[in-house]
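Bench log, entry 3. Co-assembly request; chain sequences pasted below exactly as received.
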Amino acid sequence: MIDARPERSILNHFADGARSAAGITILATAALLVAATIDKGPYIIVNTIVTGGMWALMSMGLALVFGVMNIPHFAVGEFFMTGGLLAFFAVTPFNDFLSRHPQPFVSAISPLIAIFAAALGGYLLGVLSEYIIFRPLRKRSREQWVMNTFLLTLGISVFMINGHQLVFGTEFKGIVNYWNYPSLSIFGVYISFDRVFVFTFAVIVMAALGVFMKFARMGQAIRAVSQDETGALMVGIRLNKIHALTMGLSCGLGALAGACLLFMFPSYPTVGIGPLYNAWFVVIVVGLGNVAGTVVGGFIVALFQILTTVYIGEGYGFVVPSILIIIILIFKPSGIFGSPVRGVLDR
Amino acid sequence: MEHSNRANNGGIRKALGNFGITPLGGLSFVVLALLPFIPPFNKEYLIRWLIGAVLLGAQAMAFDFTSGYISIVNFGFCAFFGLGAYTSAVLAAKAGVSPWLGMFIGVFPAALLGFLTGVLTLRLRGIFAAVMAWFVGLALMGITTKWIKLTEGPLGLNTPTLLKTSANLPYFYIVLVMMIVVYIVLKRVVASPIGLAFKAIGQNMEAARTSGINPARYRIINFTLSCAFAGWLGGFYAHYYGVLMPDVMSTAKTIEVLVVAYIGGRGSLWGGMFAAIPFVYAMEFIRSFFSKLSGLNLLLYGLFLILIMIYYPGGVAQIYQTLVGKSKNRIIRMLTNKDK
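Structure output for the full assembly:
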């Protein structure tokens, strides 16, 4: 068999890629980023990268849980809040101790412990929610599953917001920074160590998750379940275990984001709404259930949020991005990268 | 004599039945109308709660019209409600339009926005409509908070009230009539061929499509109608409380409506109204009794929603079905129009 198509150069592939919806959006975003940076200074890039990584992590969890379990998770914002809270309570005793007995090693390691504790707490809470909330419903009926689970996650969200208010009050529980190190100078821009860490950490977690999903047996099992639940069951994958793991991962990622961004978003009952909005925004932009696309989507959405705040004003953070969503829903409802898991049109 | 009396009785039943009201339903409306005179309820603040409850019940009906029949959760419901409220309030406060007229004008922007949201999302999977309505709601709330020239922002817009009196009782009857109108109109729509299409879409999209129903079109009709009623009820809200703040559009308010609608039972319409009264009283009671534990009432909201969804998805309507609907008792059957 001879390939009849003419030889295509790499450039042609690039040109094709740039003409697709994803290419257009990414190029336009990059152009916007450069323009805004020239206009307002490099902090736009820094903020986009720092928060974008975290929105990518959160929406990754969201996409995962939607792709695998078909649950539109509306309580991820509250896991963000819980993560911040856990990290705050984990890091405060350390800081008290360190203010009395300064110790460079402990002060370097304590924020990491706090962040891991928060992520672990989020994971366990997620697994718990799967066991006591989603599993009973799955056993009872799978009719109108998406709508029912949507309402269940709303219930969880309301419960957690007001549980926080009831137990810990409404005041801000935040810290100034995790590490008291001097700011790093990158291309003549001073960036606090926390921000550099947060971005690096997000990249590491994303890479680890990618490797896990691609190569680990559990990750492969998760992907199998997302493609065909019955088929996965037939080859001996234990669905219950996978569901618990997926829910735990999703909630753990939310909590991780909350813990990492504690210095930007102090924990208070309704702090999760903004991050939840962003995460959903990312998921719709890149396509429902598309896990890999959220990595790019997180940064696009972060840029949009920051540009709105910088150029238009604080309160319009919810208004302007909606226009982008409307454009996407009109022209490409499956998102810029497309939804690979299940169709978007109602059948 | 007796014969004519019975015929007359049957005539009334038939007339009520045309409006989707069973004798039992009519009886409960009468009881509700008399409730403000029955001793524990005849205090001013309790009537105020009752007005809130009836308004919430009417909202729950309009909400249930979409969630119970076409299985779409309008997660921005209170934004449409607030849009109607703000339209009417701004017209009354800034342009001097009579609140009575403004209430009806407020229907149009709410319906139009609902229509546009529907056109954009209702051909897609249900979750898109829910998320988009939520986005629209947050955007609207952001605009009302920031457009201070028009809406006074978070300080609150003072609006003229419907009546000059400060008594609550007349307002109670206004909202009661509005609730009954919402109920009758929605019930009539549900009983019509359009309603049949709604039910078909809600139960099995594939089968509905095979029968020649265009799901997107009917879903848009349904969504628009529900939003229009939300806007109308919003007009009452604005001109009853006399002050309007952007948080009337908040997601928390939508969840309030949603919880009541689900406790009432999806697809029943009346269930929401039935659940609203004890619910609002219980919540207000908890709020005033445990005022130190702020957030407790909403915590219970969340818990209620979870428990209802898992263990008793039929809500009040299901209790009714098991207790009354299948009853063999002759009087009960007659009261519920089951004796034919």
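The radius of gyration of chain B is 20 Å. Strands of chain B lie at 157-158, 243-244.
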